[in-house]
Structure formats: C-alpha cells, structure tokens
Amino acid sequence: MAYFNFKRRNLISGPHLIGPLIIAAGILVLLSPLFIFDKRSVVEAISVGVGAIFLGMIIISVYCGTLIDFPNKRYKNYVSIGYFRYGEWICLPDLNNITVVSVNYIRHNTPNGISPTLSGQVTDYRILIFSNDSEPVLSFIYSDIVEAVRDAEYIASHLKVNLVYHLSN
Fold first, then answer.
1. Region at 73 (left for phi over 0; alpha for psi -120 to 50; beta for the rest)
2. Rounded to whole angstroms, what are the CA distances from 44 to 48, 61, 147?
3. Of all helices (H) and strands (E), which one includes residue 54?
C-alpha cells in the first residue's frame, strides 16, 4: 500500500522535550546505586528509574499526524498514543493542485523568566493541497526546503495532480 505519513512532532522542543529528559533522569536514577550503598535504595532506584523511563517513552510516543492513503484516495488526521493511531478516514475531494510556499516571519519567545527571550526571522515551507475551494484541504509545515519539495513531489505523483512552487529566496 502507498501511504504518506506526516508526523507533527519535534523531540527537541515543546512538550516532547520532557520525554527524553525524563528518560535521562530515569537512567541516572538506575545508575545511582553504583554511588550510593544502601540496600533499600537499590529497590527504590530500580522502581523509580524504570517508572521514569516508561513515562518518558509514553510521552515520546504521543504525537499527532496525517496519513494519506493514495490507492483509496482518503486521509486521516490522527493522534498516536503508544504507537497506535486513532482517527477517522475522510475521503479526499477532487484535487486541483499542490502548492509549495515559503513563509517568512519573525518568531518570538514568550518571556517567562526562565528561558532567554529570543526573536529572529524564520522561514517555513508549507505544502498546501487544494481542491476547488480557496482553502487548502491539507497542509504540512516543514523547516527544510529539500524535505518539503521531496514530499510535495511524492504526494503530487501519487495523487496525479499539478505541483506549483511559490518559493522566495
């Protein structure tokens, strides 16, 4: 079966960052009996360490995405929990074109007293899938132009629609 799977997650920012941090903390707790010599602390370290690693794995495995089924011309916006995808299939309407656009904007961090308040210009690359309406049926956001163009070409070839580029330098 020919599918396209777009995952909306970033393991180095946002809520997914806490998953790898909890896993690292769990590993440190599991290693703590090597430095602390107490029989009771070994049992506690194993239970807390394994629990932290398990919780971190659950956090990492929860994300959203979109799955396109090319042969059946349908898509599913899903939530993945524990590597199971939950969502309903929706039939794709007749599509006119797929457009790749670049969007430039200034990103600001919200001042919170902990992280530095940074701002800077960012360029995102978006794949917009259009039917007869002016609003896109589906959209996917990328930070890498090569990945965006590659995926847009893949989707356009499987759905047999025109591909249009609107990219700025």
1. left
2. 6, 26, 45
3. helix 39-61
Tell me the residue type at 23: I
Q: What is the pLDDT of residue 120?
A: 80
At 149, the amino acid letter reads V
Residue located via tokens 């790749």: 100
φ, ψ at 118 (rounded to 5°): -115, 150
Q: What is the DSSP letter of 47?
A: H
Pairing verdict, β 3-8 and 63-69: antiparallel
- Closest to 22 measured CA to CA, from 49, 1, 62: 49
Tell how far CA 80 is from the center of its chain: 11
Predicted pLDDT at 134: 81
Query: What pLDDT is attached to residue 160?
Result: 92
For the CA atoms of 45, 50, 51, 53, the dihedral, rounded to the nearest 10 degrees, stands at 120
Helix or strand (DSSP H, E) at 75: strand 74-81
Place of tokens 């042969």: 71
For residue range 43-94, what is the model confidence (pLDDT) as tens digits? 888 899 999 999 999 888 888 999 999 999 999 999 998 778 999 999 999 9
Contacts of residue 87, defined as CB under 8 A and 6 or more positions apart, other chains included, come to 67, 76, 77, 78, 79
Largest CA distance in the chain: 70
Write out pLDDT tens, residues 131-169. Answer: 987 889 999 999 899 999 999 999 999 999 999 998 876
